[in-house]
Structure formats: C-alpha cells, structure tokens
Amino acid sequence: MTDLNAKPEIEFPDGPAPEGLEIIDIVVGDGAEAAAGSTVDVHYLGVDYESGDEFDSSWSRGSSINFPLRQLIAGWQQGIPGMKVGGRRKLTVPPQLAYGPAGGGHQLSGRTLIFVIDLLGVS
Predict the structure, then answer these.
(1) Which of 21, 111, 123, 108 is closest to 69 using CA atoms?
(2) Do the beta carbons of residue 50 and residue 111 sit within 8 Å?
(3) What is the mean pLDDT of residues 2-6?
C-alpha cells in the first residue's frame, strides 16, 4: 500500500533511459482532474535517472508547492494533465522535455530525470 503522507522512495531504474516521456500512475486519484491550464498543488521528489541522486524535493522542504503548469518544464506540462487529486504519478523525463541538452546552462541539462508527484489540489 502506498502512503501518500510519506515521502516516496524511487527504485533505481534498470537499463537505458527512455527516449520519450514515461508516465506511470502509482496511485490513481479520485478527485478533480488536472488540465493543461491548471494551477496545481503538489508534493514531489526529483532524482537523476543515472545516479539516483535526489536533486529536489518538496518533502525535504516540509511543504507542498503551488504553481501554474504552464510555468513548468515540458515533461510536467505533458505528464500531469489527466492526473486526479489524490493520485501519485511517476514521470521519467528525457532531457529535451526537462532542461535541454548537455551544456544548456542548467545544472540538470542533458540529464534524464525521474519525478514522483502527488497531486494535492487543482484550480
């Protein structure tokens, strides 16, 4: 049973990173559905696909975050719509849908990223 009140753990992936966005529902929510133009309230954990190192987590900061989807990386803009409040979803995001190719100026440029996202609210 998945505890949505606890920080998720991500199993280290096996094999090469996927070339496209990979969306896996860990828990399907039963609340309001996120749409492309939504503002979402989420808890999330982000790790590097290759190293497994955590690079960001709202859980570590102790509070969820709230923001419009249109302000986020393309992987989130494509991977969250359709998700329902109360759900937990894993997104594996290739570089072109995250922070771009290596050398792009962001510390995560060129990296495939894994996010586990809990959708707490949508407006």
Answers:
(1) 123
(2) yes
(3) 74
CB-based burial label for 37 (10 Å; 0-12, 13-18, 19+)? exposed
For the chain, the domains span: 22-122
pLDDT digits (tens, 9 = 90+) for 54-104: 999 999 999 999 999 999 999 999 999 999 999 999 999 999 999 999 988
Contact between 15 and 8 under an 8 Å Cβ cutoff? The reply is no
Name the pLDDT band for 18 (thresholds 50, 70, 90): very high
Q: Which residues are known to be catalytic?
A: 44, 55-56, 73, 99, 115
Give the residue carrying structure tokens 């995250």.
98
CATH for 22-122 is: 3.10.50.40
Taking Cα atoms as reference points, which of 93, 100, 97, 101 lies closest to residue 117? 93
